[in-house]
Amino acid sequence: MNWRPNEVKYGRNFIQSAIEDQESFLVTTTEVPWNIVKKRVQNEPKKKVFVKSMERAKVENLTKNLPDIDTVIGIGGGLAIDMGKFVAWKKDTRLVTIPTVISADAMVTPAIAIRDDWNVRYIGYKTADKVFVDFDIIQEAPEAYNRGGAEDILSSYTALYDWKLASDRGYETYHENIAKKGEECLEKLEKNATEIKKVSEKGIKTLIDLYMKELDLCKAFGNSRPEEGSEHFFAYNLEYLTKRPYRHGPLVGLGIYLMAKLQNERQEKIVDLMDKIDLNYHPMEIDVARSEVRATLSTLEWYVEKERLPYTIINEKGINKEKIRELLEVLEF
After folding, report:
1. For residue 92, is it left (φ>0), alpha (ψ between -120 and 50) or beta?
2. Metal-binding among the record's keywords (predicted)?
3. 115 in helix, strand or coil?
């Protein structure tokens, strides 16, 4: 399977040209991005699928009785594009993605994630044929949302530590060459922090290029271990316990901070970089209460065992009440 999109095109004001070649297509989107894009689109899709959740029952209900089409176009952020991947996979059609924000790596990654009773489930893969990155549209989105995409790269900081820890404990094999390339991605992110903060053309290109480099690392290893560890497991458990979705970047950022602190107080370096990019990682940014974070941490070991997730710092250190107090002491709620 080809994990990378066949083509990524960059430009300005070219959404109409991206869509006008499609004769028989369906759009998956959400209200805000569609309202931004529709004025630039002249040819009408056969159907517009507006998605609010990737919960299995809701996804299956939305995909009943869809028309025959040649192409699915996912327009929006991670939610809309995940739905596009799901529909294109189900109907075995071409997939085109048009991100309106770069808050997550969904536009270039093939994995299809749904929620089953708020548990994350990867159920299939669909690689985009083309990705159209329109700088005008992306720069219309709130800067904080676009910057948040960096947290999908920063997760390697904690994930690589977890991977090495699991290898040291005899649970799996650690590949130095893959890990080194993951560290190089973090270095490139830091080198371009100012451009990413500004959401400049260079900053946007840098993030998308890093998404694809991490995709290559995951393909080389065979799964997402090089960029997904305890920080994502924290995020998954919070979603599971609270039964609601969150902005992906700040949620993962919170997980990075907490797990880096749990990893022998490694948070200072990554916090400096998050602050340099002006990233949100405090609970108040995603409207999470102290009690909810406390509950997520106190049940984290139970959750990773229930879900049979890979070995991480969560399995290594007991997270008791005193440890939770230490983890939360400087966070803003």
Report:
1. left
2. yes
3. strand
Residue 29 included in any domain? yes
pTM as predicted: 0.93
Residue 237 has pLDDT above 90, yes or no: yes
Name the amino acid, one letter, at 121. Answer: R
CA-nearest of 115, 118, 119, 121 to 56 is 115
Cβ 19 vs Cβ 144: under 8 Å: no
Task: Count the domains in the chain.
Answer: 2
- Residue 257 and residue 23: Cα distance in Å, rounded? 47
3-state helix, strand, coil in the chain (%, to 5): 55, 15, 30
Same domain, residue pair 183 and 86: no
3-6 long-range Cβ contacts below 8 angstroms, 24+ apart: 3/109, 3/110, 3/127, 3/215, 3/216, 3/218, 3/219, 4/108, 4/127, 4/212, 4/215, 4/216, 5/97, 5/108, 5/127, 5/128, 5/129, 5/130, 5/131, 5/212, 6/127, 6/128, 6/129, 6/130
> pLDDT tens-digit profile of 156-197?
999 999 999 999 999 999 999 999 999 999 999 999 999 999
Task: Give me the CATH number covering residue 92.
Answer: 3.40.50.1970
- Residue at 1 is within a domain: no
- The residue range of the domain holding 109 is 7-138
